[in-house]
Design goal:
Strand content: under 5%
Number of helices: 39
Helix content: 55-70%
Distance between the termini: 65 Å
Structural class: mainly alpha
Shape: globular
Radius of gyration: 31 Å
Number of strands: 7
Strand order of the largest sheet: 1-2-3
């Protein structure tokens, strides 16, 4: 008997086929087993990306060809040069679009679409060759011809890989759909956004040169360097789309630790890709214009108001262009190596990998030792140049002193590379840290005795004493590292490998940022010929501070990461797992990070450069930023962080040796007075913290002190407005010039703080909370009235501020209405508490870039406050900075608000998942939201890239009005998106079904906003699992783990390491 019936349970598409009972008298349980074995799942249909997205990608390809072809219709040389540079910038976009088109499924036969796009690419390369031929650029002709032949090979390879993909994925429709409708669209969009930021700098340079009627040839190096970065982003995306899915082995981080790849070809690809990336970052960071126009002091007898200062000569630009072509060729070698046999270079694979446990691969050690030797060598060169009083000694001093951050990472990672082995080589590499400071002290001393200026002599003397202090610090640092390494060698080998893997991944994540930070000011230093090196001090010191901060994070994690206490997000935000030393560390880390990012945001100033060039007095802010004080403050914060961790570790080690038979730790006596003192302080502080912790683990809220901090952040804008209003008569014109625009500058920060305060208490009983919510909403709205008042004082219209106040009040009312719906419709406290925790973490991650953006605007205001002539004078000099920064900062704040309001209300079937967006399986409201958000994001990045400091030149009012109009349009469109989200949520409801089914769907399905939030989950996973000190639970008696309870969030554990924040 052969029957076919449909099994109606959770999945109506599951069928039972060929059901046969081997024995007529089979039991019901045996029959069920036979039925279960014969269940077959009907595969989902193959999803295809909407043709609309393919058309848009094709428009990018043909747009690049049309821009290149317009070269033949240009008359003026400068116009032709602009078209050439635009073609150079847009070509990587066309390649990226073609890469996506080939990999996507749209029709059963897509060969014609692929071929047309490829022909357009080849024609654009032919145009580029002709342009280089007209300009007599042999290197450009050869480079573009190389691109033409390489593209033919890459196109054929891409087609083969795309056709093999279904077989590689075993014709599994779910995996194929995930690749076509999720992986490729997300990779393409994220790559395009990054490329848009890089390209915006090139567009901004061309626009600025056109405004100033200066030859666009001034942007040659910037455009070439940005082009190399664009090609690197394209390469990374193509590797993710074409190479990674075809790998036979999915490598883990442990394989990366041992460099254990399947063959030498993949090892070479990884090495070449890494070095190409670092060289690209270096070229991108060191790009400069060929010349600048510096203003001449008013007391000068020169006829002109500006002077042309050469930064890079034509020969230097051509040399860097050749370097750029070499780096791009190195990138092209990565996919070309696919033609290499897997059996080649076996000796390379065996020598660079390791099969031993608890140690990193030999190739990593070789790289660390090589760079440690290079750093020691360049320091020796600096010392020699200072000894012979060479004029280049000052440049070399700047170059070498900035390498300390990289040297710290090298020495510490190498010292812990094999904890269970002898540390003979490790000690020699660590000695390079001592050699670094000894050579710096000698170089400073030689410069001091050879200096003719008294100020320069005092500066070198101060540097010599500072380097000498850090030179002596190597001895306690060595004792700490040696003790930590010894303790690491005694734990289980699996735990050692986990720690080494996390350290290696953390170093890999930090290295690109540190290379960029240290390379960016080096271009200013190396090209300092027609201008003094002092103009580079501001950027140099700012980047040096944040680079050192990142290296301190790495040093802290390498030293203490394996024995840190780990707390859950619930334990942190409810204060159940908070300890005295933890609170001190978090506060100091917050202070150091705030200073670093604020300093970094203020690092670039044309006014400072011009003042230094003309030997004019700089403002007090720049004097502070270029002084050693910010660096000393950050260093002292980290010394105290290390000290707090050391005292806690040693005290816990002593308490672990107590024999706890009949007495608790509180009744034990430490042998050292310092341990007794810290134990008493810890005990008293814990009692205070217990007063504010969330007693019930199921409460959908966070601790009151943390909400108070969020409330203070939300009220910051209102406080600034009140100070400006009530003290307007006593404040000076310079202070008012800074305070009044700051009301707008801190608006996104206050908005995030306020909304985070709203959504960190989702309890059904809002005792007094509604009144605080309304008060905070008023504090966010009424500054518009203060702005309107000062507009009236300036004799301008107040209507615009009144309109914005109404819009802002409506938006906040909508946000509070969303909060009520969250409480009413989501009955599960567990889900609401999980949302509270996500809101806090999302708010913290959003405030980091906002701090950087806001500090750039405020720094500009402080610098130009000395030029104010009248009280209540409107800001003009920082208008472009304000518009460029606000377009990004407000959109970050709006994304956060959209996530906080709508994340847990969105039904799973209505969530804006990547697969639904790529196939356009959307409602009209959702589709309109996608179009608006994409347009606002791209235009905001463009406006941010085109910002510039200083008052507008004559005839630029139209351009400034266009920028301001764009900012207001983005603001209104985002408000419209909020309304659409509210209407769409009302229309869709919350998914239907029983309440239990709704909550399960919310747990298993994530909305688009939640996926944006979870982009940093890999960073969380890097920091491992929850640890206990000495095999025991938390010692303050308040941890949820002490009571045998599980965290309500589960799996999202936060590290106490400051490196996580």
């Amino acid at each position: 008997m052969s029957d076919k019936c449909t099994f109606e349970a959770n999945n109506p598409s599951i069928e039972l086929t060929d059901v046969r009972l081997s024995t007529p008298g089979a039991t019901e349980k045996e029959a069920q087993k036979i039925h279960h074995d014969n269940i077959s799942y009907r595969p989902p249909p193959l999803a295809r990306v909407s043709n609309l997205w393919i058309v848009l990608l094709q428009l990018i390809v043909f747009g690049n060809f049309c821009v290149g072809a317009s070269f033949f219709f240009a008359d003026e040389n400068d116009e032709r040069l602009s078209i050439e540079y635009l073609t150079l910038t847009l070509t990587p976009f066309a390649w990226m679009a073609t890469c996506s088109i080939i990999s996507l499924r749209t029709k059963p036969n897509d060969d014609s679409i692929h071929l047309v796009a490829s022909i357009a690419i080849e024609l654009s390369l032919v145009v580029r060759c002709y342009i280089k031929y007209i300009n007599y650029s042999l290197a450009g002709i050869l480079g573009n011809m190389f691109f033409m032949f390489a593209y033919v090979f890459l196109y054929q390879t891409a087609l083969k890989l795309a056709n093999r993909l279904p077989k590689k994925l075993e014709h599994n429709h779910e995996r194929i759909n995930s690749f076509n409708c999720r992986l490729v669209p997300i990779t393409t969009m994220s790559t395009f956004m990054s490329m848009m930021y890089c390209a915006s700098e090139s567009f901004a340079c061309l626009i600025e040169m056109d405004k100033k009627q200066v030859s666009v040839d001034n942007c040659a190096d910037k455009i070439g360097s940005n082009e190399s970065m664009l090609w690197f982003l394209v390469l990374a995306a193509c590797l993710k789309i074409y190479i990674v899915p075809h790998q036979k082995i999915n490598y883990s981080v442990e394989d990366m630790l041992k460099f254990d790849f399947a063959n030498a070809r993949e090892q070479l690809q990884m090495v070449i890709f890494t070095f190409a990336g670092l060289l690209t970052i270096y070229l991108y960071a060191t790009s400069e214009r060929q010349y600048e126009f510096f203003p001449i002091p008013s007391n000068s007898t020169h006829n002109s108001t500006t002077i042309k200062v050469t930064i890079m000569t034509d020969d230097r630009v051509n040399t860097r262009y050749r370097y750029m072509l070499a780096v791009i060729s190195l990138m092209a070698a990565v996919p070309l190596l696919q033609k290499l046999s897997r059996k080649k270079f076996k000796f390379f694979r065996e020598r660079t990998r390791t099969s031993l446990r608890a140690r990193i691969a030999p190739i990593y050690r070789w790289i660390l030792e090589f760079f440690a030797f290079v750093i020691a060598t360049v320091n020796a060169i600096y010392c020699y140049l200072a000894y012979v009083n060479n004029p280049r000694a000052e440049k070399w001093q700047k170059h070498t002193s900035s390498l300390l951050a990289i040297l710290l990472i090298i020495c510490n990672l190498h010292f812990f590379n094999a904890p269970t082995a002898r540390k003979r080589k490790e000690n020699w590499v660590l000695i390079s840290y001592l050699v670094f400071f000894v050579l710096q002290v000698l170089g400073n001393y030689f410069q001091m005795i050879n200096a003719e200026d008294e100020d320069e002599r005092k500066k070198r003397e101060y540097s010599a004493y500072g380097n000498g202090f850090w030179c002596l610090g190597i001895f306690p640092v060595y004792l700490i590292l040696n003790s930590s390494r010894t303790m690491l060698s005694k734990i289980h080998v699996d735990d050692i490998e986990k720690h080494l893997t996390k350290c290696l991944m953390l170093a890999a994540a930090m290295l690109p940022s540190i290379v960029f930070l240290l390379a960016e000011p080096q271009s200013c230093v190396m090209y300092a010929n027609d201008y003094k090196i002092e103009v580079c001090t501001l950027m140099f010191e700012s980047n040096y501070i944040i680079g050192g901060h990142l290296s301190y994070v790495f040093l802290f994690y390498v030293t203490f990461g394996y024995k840190l206490d780990w707390m859950s997000s619930d334990g942190l935000l409810s204060l159940k797992d908070m300890r005295f030393h933890t609170s001190i560390q978090l506060f100091l880390f917050f202070l150091a990070s705030t200073l670093c990012f604020a300093t970094y945001g203020m690092r670039s100033s044309e006014l400072y450069v011009h003042q230094k060039y003309n030997n004019e007095k700089v403002c007090a802010l720049d004097n502070f930023l270029t002084s050693p004080h910010p660096n000393n403050i950050v260093a002292m914060c980290w010394i105290m962080i290390f000290g707090a961790q050391l005292q806690y570790s040693y005290r816990m080690e002593a308490e672990a040796n107590f024999e706890l038979e009949n007495r608790e730790i509180e009744h034990q006596q430490h042998s050292k007075w310092f341990h007794r003192l810290t134990h008493r302080i810890d005990k008293r502080v814990n009692r205070v913290i217990e007063m504010f912790e969330v007693k019930n683990v199921e409460d959908a809220r966070i601790a009151a002190p943390l909400r108070t901090v969020l409330c203070g952040v939300g009220c910051a804008r209102g406080f600034i407005a009140m100070v400006a209003f009530f003290f307007q008569n006593s404040l000076t014109k310079q202070q008012l010039y800074v305070l009044l625009p700051s009301i707008t500058a801190v608006n996104p920060i206050s908005l995030i703080g306020g909304v985070a305060y709203f959504y960190t208490n989702l309890e059904e009983k809002q005792i007094g909370s509604k009144w605080f919510d309304k008060f905070l909403a008023i504090m966010l709205v009424f500054p518009f009235a203060i702005d309107a008042h000062f507009e009236v004082v300036r004799r301008k219209s107040w209507v615009i501020n009144a309109i914005w106040m109404c819009i802002y009040a409506g938006a906040l009312a909508l946000i509070l209405r969303f909060k009520e719906r969250n409480i009413q419709e989501v009955k599960s406290k567990r889900v609401r508490k999980q949302h509270c925790i996500k809101v806090v973490v999302f708010a913290c991650t959003s405030l980091v870039p906002l701090l950087f953006l806001t500090s750039e605007h405020i720094g500009c205001l402080v610098r130009f406050s000395d030029t104010v002539e009248e009280k209540f004078e409107a800001d003009v000099s920082c208008r472009s900075i304000k518009l460029g920064v606000s377009t990004i900062s407000f959109q970050l704040a709006f994304v956060f608000c959209l996530f906080a309001c709508n994340a847990i209300l969105t039904a799973p079937e209505h969530a804006l998942a990547a697969s639904r967006v790529s196939t356009l399986s959307l409602s009209r409201i959702d589709l309109l939201q996608i179009v608006i958000l994409g347009g606002c994001g791209s235009f905001g990045i463009f406006l941010y890239g085109t910002r510039e400091e200083g008052p507008p030149d004559e005839g630029e009012d139209g351009a400034g009005s266009l920028q301001e109009l764009g900012f207001y349009v983005i603001f209104l469109l985002w408000f419209f998106v909020g309304i659409l989200a509210y209407l769409g949520n009302n229309k869709s409801g919350n998914g239907g079904g029983t309440e239990k089914e709704k909550e399960l769907q919310r747990d298993s399905n994530l909305s688009l906003q939640e996926k944006v939030f979870n982009m940093s989950s890999s960073t969380k996973n890097m920091f491992g699992e929850k640890k206990k000190w000495g095999g025991r639970e938390g010692r303050n008696g308040r941890s949820s783990t002490d009571r045998g309870e599980e965290s309500v969030v589960g799996g999202n554990d936060l590290s106490l390491s400051p490196g996580f924040m």
